[in-house]
Design goal:
Alkaline Phosphatase, subunit A, 3 domains, globular, 4-stranded antiparallel beta sheet, Arylsulfatase, C-terminal domain, alpha/beta
């Protein structure tokens, strides 16, 4: 019998409480529901960051950010990724990503035979990020769904691993989807068409993937993991287009809306069940290794194998560490520590602290830091110890090499040339000169 294939789908900015398998009734996510019906659904999975590449680095390595070294947009993944492990044991590997935060230059292509990332031609938005004197343009958007399905058809006779990062639920994707008539104007338009974008993703990616796997008769032999990198602070239902991005932080906080993510695992080895236990993005890699019967003795993980939990065995309480240290992006450099009862948040930039009893106050409205009892103070002290350890390894250095920087400058020049309309250009050794 062939080993299990594995498909990992990370849905950018998707909250679990907007999927019908988690009880949402405004839309029906039939594809995700079908996977949940055949698998294990986790109700309390927490991401290690609200920043896409930091969260993915932890998710794909099983390690916290202090070990992956991916702390802000200008970093590279330093740890060994699940793609490298699976390639080493003979899997065909393919990666498809929707934002070049997750590109080769950031280290995310390691271990992939095929890696499909955004280009100037495929992206629909470019956003500039700055850290000191360093600048970086990031391409948003890459519609890879059909290419992924074609890759499955071409490689299904081999054991394969696919990572697909779907970006088209992200803010501003609705403008492109509306322009291309892929979602209906004024239908499910709340929160910048958030539900409409999720529904479209489910129909074209998830249901298309399920159909392909069943047509190839590899549905039962393919394990599927559905999750997200972070959630979303939605703000008002009908935001002002001109101010939405600035007025509403979206995924820039340490609150549950930004850190709680869906996690669904389907495998022929697992029975259908729903689990309340708090788990983490870093637990995915060690779980995959057990699920696929792969012994990777040299792989150090901060995460915990969830197989015993899914099989009904006794399981320890898990503590989650999350961060967003790139203070340029939001309210400052943020850290949080959470268990099943409490969450402690600190803003290093503003020197503020928050403590919530999330069992009693799931919406995090009542900051009890000034009235903490003995148990709560103990949790705060232990949380600060974790935070200090994680923050002590954060060094603000330029993570890109000279070659990366040179490539970036070439890209800037190329874009400049393309945007100069109705001008004849001549490139000489001394630079770019305009010719009248």
């Amino acid at each position: 019998m062939k080993n299990e294939n594995l498909i990992l789908i990370t849905m950018d900015t998707v909250r679990p409480d907007h999927l019908s398998c988690y009880g949402y009734d405004k839309i029906e996510t039939k594809g995700i529901d079908l996977i949940a019906k055949d698998g294990v659904l986790f109700k309390n999975c927490i991401a290690q960051s609200c920043l896409t590449p930091t969260s993915h680095a932890s998710m794909l390595t099983g390690q916290n950010p202090d070990k992956t070294k991916f702390r802000d947009p200008f970093c590279k993944v330093k740890s060994k990724m699940i793609s490298e492990i699976l390639k080493d044991v003979g899997y065909k590997t393919a990666g498809f990503v929707g934002i070049d935060f997750l590109s080769k230059k950031h280290g995310f292509a390691k271990g992939f035979d095929v890696f499909d990332e955004p280009t100037d031609e495929t992206s629909w938005n470019t956003k500039k990020y700055k850290r000191g004197k360093l600048e970086m343009d990031t391409n948003w958007g890459n519609w890879w769904v059909e290419r992924m399905l074609d890759w499955i058809k071409e490689n299904h006779s081999n054991n394969f691993f696919i990572w697909g990062h779907y970006f088209e639920v992200h803010f501003l994707a609705e403008k492109r989807l509306l322009f291309e008539n892929k979602i209906e104007r004024d239908n499910l338009s709340d929160w910048a068409y958030y539900d409409a974008k999720i529904k479209y993703m489910d129909e074209w990616l998830i249901q298309g993937m399920i159909k392909t796997l069943k047509n190839l008769d590899i549905w039962d032999n393919t394990s599927i993991i559905i999750t997200s990198d972070h959630g979303e602070t939605l703000g008002t239902r009908q935001p002002n287009w001109e101010t939405f991005y600035f007025d509403y932080p979206q995924h820039k906080t340490m609150y549950e809306c930004d850190l709680k993510i869906p996690l669904i695992i389907k495998s022929r080895k697992l029975k259908r069940t729903i689990i309340d236990h708090t788990v983490r993005g870093i637990d995915i890699v060690p779980t995959i290794l057990d699920l696929l019967d792969i012994n990777s003795g040299d792989k150090e993980c901060d995460g915990t194998n969830l197989m015993p939990l899914m099989e009904g065995d006794s399981f320890p309480e898990l503590t989650t560490y999350s961060e967003e240290l790139f203070r340029n992006r939001g309210a400052g450099s943020l850290q949080s520590v959470r268990d099943s009862k409490y969450k402690f948040i600190r803003n290093i930039t503003k020197n503020t602290e928050e403590l919530y009893n999330i069992q009693k106050d799931s919406n995090e409205k009542d900051n009890i830091i000034d009235s903490a009892n003995t148990e709560e103070k103990t949790f705060v002290r232990q949380s600060k110890e974790i935070m200090e350890k994680m923050y002590s390894s954060y060094q603000i250095k330029v993570a890109f090499t000279v070659e990366d920087r040179t490539e970036y400058e070439k890209k800037k020049i190329k874009k400049l040339v393309k945007t100069l309309d109705n001008k004849t250009l001549k490139i000489e050794k001394t630079g770019i000169q305009q010719v009248n």
